[in-house]
C-alpha cells in the first residue's frame, strides 16, 4: 500500500513547522525582554509605562493614523505571530485584531484593556427624535453601540493600566514587582492629570462649557468633566459616517443657538468639513497645531506623543478656546 495523501500532507506540515521554529527569534541568552505588540498609540503608551525595560513594545497603528478603518499589513501579522503578549483597546476600535490573530496563529495572551471599564452607550440622537404612530423600533440600534474612546477619562485609563499590569505579571512572574511599581507610579500620574483637568475646566465660565468636535470621541471626557456635548461633524463613534448638507446646516444652527464658542478638529481627520460648519456658524475652528488628539497621539518625542501629554494638550486647547485659564 502506498502512504495516503493525508499522511504525506501531515508530514510536510510538520517538517515546515520544525524549520519555522528554528528560524524564529528566540530570546537566546542576553535579551529576555517580552515582545509586546499593541494596537493603538494609547495602549502602546500604557504598555511602555507599565513594562519599562522588561518589555519591547511594537505599536501597530502609527501616530496620526485613523484607527477606525485600520488595515493590518503583512508585517503586522508577522509581528503578532512573534509576540509574547498582545494589548488591544477593545470595544470594537481594533476589531480587526481578531482576524490578525487567526492569520498569525497567535495563541498567547491578549489583553483587552477595556475589561472592567464602565462603557458609555451611544445615545446623543435620542433627544428630539420622538417616535410617532406607536410603531415600536427597538431593534434599530444604530446608536446603541458602545463608545470605544474610553481612555479620555483618566479613571478608565487607570483600569486599562491595571489590565496590562496583570497580564504582564502572569506572562513574566519575575517582573511582577516591577510591573506593580510602574503601574502604581503611572496611576499616580493619572490622578494628578485628573485633578489638574478638573481645575482647568472649572475655570471656563459655566455657560461656555460646551463642546463640538470632529467626531464623537470625547464623550467620556465630557461626562467626567461636566462639559455639554453639543454635537459632532461626524455623528458617530466611528470616523466614517457623514452628515448631509441639511444636517450640517442644522448643526451650525445649533452652534449659534447654544452659544458654542469653537469647533475642534482632530489630528487624524481632515478638517475641511469642520471648517465649513464653523464658518457657517460664525465661530472659530481650532485646528492645525491645536487639533485635538481624539483617536491617537502625536508623533513620538513631541509633547503630544504620550497619553499624558496628549490629554494635557487637549484640555489646554479646549480651556483656552472656551475662555478659561490654563
Ligand atoms: Zn474615534
Q: Compute the average pLDDT.
A: 86
Q: Under the CATH scheme, which class of the domain at 203-321?
A: Alpha Beta
Instruction: Give the oligomeric state.
Output: single chain
Q: What is the CATH homologous superfamily assignment of the domain at 203-321? A: Nitrogenase molybdenum iron protein domain
Sheet with the most strands, sense and barrel status:
4 strands, parallel
Q: Which regions are unreliable across 5 or more consecutive residues at pLDDT < 50?
A: 1-30, 123-143
- CATH fold annotation of the domain at 203-321: Rossmann fold
Overall 3D form: globular
Helix content: 40-55%
Computed structural class = alpha/beta
What does this entry look like structurally?
With 326 residues, the protein is an alpha/beta fold. The chain has a domain of 119 residues: 3-Layer(aba) Sandwich (Rossmann fold), CATH 3.40.50.1980. It is 42% helix and 11% strand. The protein is built from 10 helices and 8 strands. The strands form 2 sheets. Strands 2-1-3-4 form a 4-stranded parallel beta sheet, with helices on both faces. The chain has a 4-stranded parallel beta sheet with strand order 6-5-7-8, with helices on both faces. Strand 7, helix 9 and strand 8 form a beta-alpha-beta unit. The longest helix is centred in the middle third of the chain and has 27 residues. The radius of gyration is 23 Å and the shape is globular. The N and C termini lie far apart (83 Å). The relative contact order is 0.12. The protein binds zinc ion. Zinc ion (ZN) binds next to loops.
Amino acid at each position: 500500500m502506498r502512504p495516503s495523501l493525508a499522511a504525506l500532507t501531515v508530514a510536510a506540515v510538520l517538517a515546515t513547522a520544525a524549520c519555522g521554529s528554528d528560524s524564529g527569534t528566540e530570546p537566546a541568552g542576553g535579551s529576555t525582554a517580552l515582545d509586546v505588540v499593541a494596537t493603538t498609540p494609547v495602549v502602546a503608551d500604557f504598555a511602555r509605562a507599565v513594562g519599562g525595560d522588561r518589555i519591547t513594545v511594537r505599536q501597530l497603528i502609527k501616530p496620526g493614523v485613523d484607527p477606525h478603518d485600520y488595515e493590518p499589513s503583512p508585517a503586522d501579522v508577522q509581528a503578532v505571530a512573534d509576540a509574547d503578549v498582545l494589548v488591544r483597546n477593545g470595544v470594537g476600535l481594533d476589531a480587526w485584531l481578531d482576524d490578525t490573530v487567526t492569520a498569525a496563529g497567535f495563541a498567547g495572551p491578549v489583553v483587552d484593556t477595556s475589561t472592567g471599564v464602565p462603557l458609555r452607550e451611544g445615545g446623543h440622537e435620542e433627544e428630539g427624535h420622538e417616535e410617532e404612530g406607536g410603531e415600536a423600533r427597538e431593534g434599530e440600534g444604530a446608536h446603541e453601540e458602545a463608545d470605544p474612546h474610553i481612555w479620555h477619562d483618566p479613571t478608565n485609563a487607570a483600569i486599562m493600566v491595571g489590565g496590562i499590569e496583570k497580564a504582564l505579571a502572569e506572562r513574566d512572574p519575575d517582573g511582577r514587582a516591577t510591573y506593580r511599581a510602574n503601574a502604581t507610579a503611572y496611576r499616580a500620574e493619572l490622578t494628578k492629570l485628573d485633578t489638574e483637568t478638573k481645575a482647568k475646566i472649572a475655570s471656563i465660565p459655566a455657560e461656555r462649557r460646551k463642546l463640538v468636535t470632529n467626531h464623537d470621541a470625547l464623550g467620556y471626557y465630557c461626562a467626567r468633566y461636566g462639559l455639554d456635548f453639543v454635537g459632532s461633524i461626524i455623528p458617530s463613534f466611528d470616523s466614517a459616517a457623514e452628515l448631509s448638507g441639511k444636517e450640517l446646516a442644522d448643526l451650525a444652527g445649533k452652534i449659534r443657538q447654544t452659544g458654542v464658542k469653537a469647533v475642534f478638529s482632530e489630528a487624524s481627520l481632515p478638517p475641511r468639513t469642520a471648517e465649513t460648519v464653523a464658518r457657517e456658524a460664525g465661530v472659530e475652528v481650532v485646528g492645525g497645531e491645536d487639533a485635538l488628539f481624539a483617536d491617537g497621539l502625536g508623533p513620538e518625542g513631541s509633547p503630544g506623543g504620550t497619553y499624558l501629554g496628549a490629554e494635557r494638550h487637549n484640555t489646554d486647547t479646549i480651556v483656552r478656546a472656551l475662555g478659561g485659564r490654563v
